[in-house]
Amino acid sequence: MITREKLKQAIGAISSRDPEIGYSLNEMLSTGQLDVQSVHDEVLQEDDFYFLFQNKKIPVKKFQYLNDGIVAIEERLLIQYGELFRKQEFLKKGDSINFQAAVMEIREAGLKLMVTHEIDYAIANVRKKLKTLEGKAVAKKEVSSNAASAPMTLSKKDNKILFQKRLIAFLEKIKTDQKSLEIPPDKISADEVYKGVVDIDTPAYFIPFPFCLDSLMQVADLNLDFFYVRFLLNCLGKNVGQNLFACVVNRKIVGLIFIAFREKMFQRAVEIQFMATVRGGNSDQAKLPLPQVEGVGTLLVSGVWMLWKNRFASIGEIFLESEIGADQFYKSVGFQRRRHFEYVLKDPRGYLLNVILIMANNCLAPSPTVIKEINTLIRKQIKFLCQNPKNKEEASYRKLVVSFVKECLRSKTRPEFAKTAANTLDRYKNKIPDSEELLEFAAECGFNLVKKKPISNAQPLLVVYDDRFTQHLENIFHLENAKRFKAIKSVLSHAQIEGKWTEVAPRLASVEELAWVHIASHIDKIARTAGKPLASLDLDTQTTEKSYEVARLAVGAVFNLLDEIWSGKAKRGFAFIRPPGHHAEPDKAMGFCLFNNIALGARYLKERYAVQKVMIVDIDVHHGNGTQAAFYDTDEVLYFSMHQFPAYPGTGNLGEVGQGKGMGFTVNVPLGKGHGDKDFAQIIYFLANPLAEEYKPDMLLVSCGFDLYIHDRLSGMRGTPDGYAMITFLLLEIAEKVCEGRIAFIMEGGYSLKGIRECGLRIMQELCNASTLNSDKIDRIKMGAPSKLSTLKKVLAIQKKYWNL
């Protein structure tokens, strides 16, 4: 409550700066025209004190009064005095006047008087500081006058003097500035100015506070908590004016926010120190025409978020301290309580998301951090829609998320947001309970995301196998032996897939066809082993009499399988062949491999059918160095490999990403020992899947090794038959999405006969639509957090240079 003593102190402070105004106010106090509220009077508002000026209640913000004492009273007194002075001038003229115009003019006169008075007070204080600094500077120069030479750069004191002089000039300029606030252009290029909306669609701007006479008069008229004219001018004096921002609607300030930079837990943080909006003001507002809008606080927080991500991406967080009365608002936009009264902004949510998106769309050049963060937020919100609402609150929030996703889909200026929304919606559409509305809206925006029908059982699975594949390395001891092929035959005769696949006969590939990948000397070297009981090409790789013929048969088997798929007789197939191929490089055999079956298959599609793009997914535990080498400098094939590392052959590290035209078209996921089903499935879902969606291959080829199996003799992974089923399910899903279901599996390694039988059966069951896979496992993979797998996180970071992941 304001006492008469405080009122006298405020008048005394004004008198010390302007005796004439002080004398008039003292006269009013002594005659009862100025007074304080009676203890029996009702308080104007719960948060306000007031005094009486000619029997009119003049509100004084409680926060200002309790924190800055009589300053709040001084400013209100000056406004009322200025208004009174202008009224008297009107009365002296005695002319007929437009009442409404006169009210406006009187109010402006009061505001202008107060603001210019405060500016003069600020200038006087700066002059005092300047005089002190200049006196110290002179004394210092006298002491150092005998020095041999003077420094060429300005000292700290010199810089302070220069700052004070410039500040005085700036403040003097403000007093004569007659310009109104300017509206920024529709497309904002500045990294501190952002265009958003308040209400539903009213344009609003987040801008650095524009220090001018008009803006200061507006702030004086608003009489908001925290923000009063002397506080704003003090910000200039402390050189933190750049931390003050405003929300502007139709050239009118409707909200203010002040931020500070803090060191918290060994990292910098942005603190929202003060924020106030028009709706939080008192009844003394709206004397000047003022937009009455909602959502100002949300726009201010959105602007700070954009400022953070655009300019201060290295800063760790945004936080604030809030009283209980405001915590509901902060929670609704994504702040979470960390300790008593302290909140940190984790993920923006609700209306805050919409405004951030609109600001980014209106920004000419948002930083890569802004784009990345918003894309991440889009994905998280669509994942949220996969959950059924548990209560009314979640159901209500769900509507906000749907609105946000629609806003993303219609994004034209930033098409990457629309693409992310469409791709993520496509990924989760079967899990979203009420996806029809969003799918229809996506179609209106040009994205055809209609739910795909299950793969038809009418289309057969094609299988290539031939007993001649047992003739390679016949009658010698070797890990890659005929028993592997016999294990596959037992799978093909299993009752659960009997009658659900169709055999395709192989053929011999020609020397000319082998030359699409391999150099002539390498082909000739393998050919010369024909008829020899045993020939060693390196420590691991041997041939016997029939090996050259069987190796050509393996390549030709792949060709015939691809012919059948490309002609439309089926969508999918598996070539169970020996010897394997993905280690064979263009100029040498290695790692049990003679010719590179899958690389030749990709070339066959190019040469025979003019296929433009092929994606190879390598799930063998050993890196397919030969396949990588064949396509390292081309964008015609996207090679993707997850494998154990370090391990044979020593290639496939994170930095191997292609070269020349092939830069970014080699994707390696090197894994340490001990990874299992969940990790493999997440790598396919969170990396291979979005890569395929962006690359859009005409066909998917899979180098299928069975050595991810937990008991394989040449690996250290922990894969199970269930894991192979999940991998197959996800690869089929990718193929349906990007290349009309066309996919071919080509057998590579795997040296546990039990692993081949059990994992092979589960793959075949998926391919034959006889799945025994628990769908909950797939759901958990899709709803999981890929960031928990450190290698996947590293690969995503590298590949984001080349792909929109």
Helical residue percent band? 40-55%
Estimated structural class: alpha/beta
Please mark out the parts with pLDDT under 50 across 5 or more consecutive residues, or reply none.
147-152, 280-286, 452-457
Largest sheet: 8 strands, mixed
Outline type: elongated
State the strand order across the main sheet. 4-5-6-7-8-9-11-10
Explain the overall architecture.
By secondary structure, the protein is an alpha/beta fold. The strands form four sheets. It has an eight-stranded mixed beta sheet with strand order 4-5-6-7-8-9-11-10, with helices on both faces. Strands 13-12-16-21-20-17-18-19 form an eight-stranded parallel beta sheet, sandwiched between helices. The chain has a three-stranded antiparallel beta sheet with strand order 1-2-3. Helix 9 links the parallel strand 8 and strand 9. Helix 16 runs parallel beside helix 24 (753-767). Residues 147-152, 280-286 and 452-457 have low confidence and may be disordered.
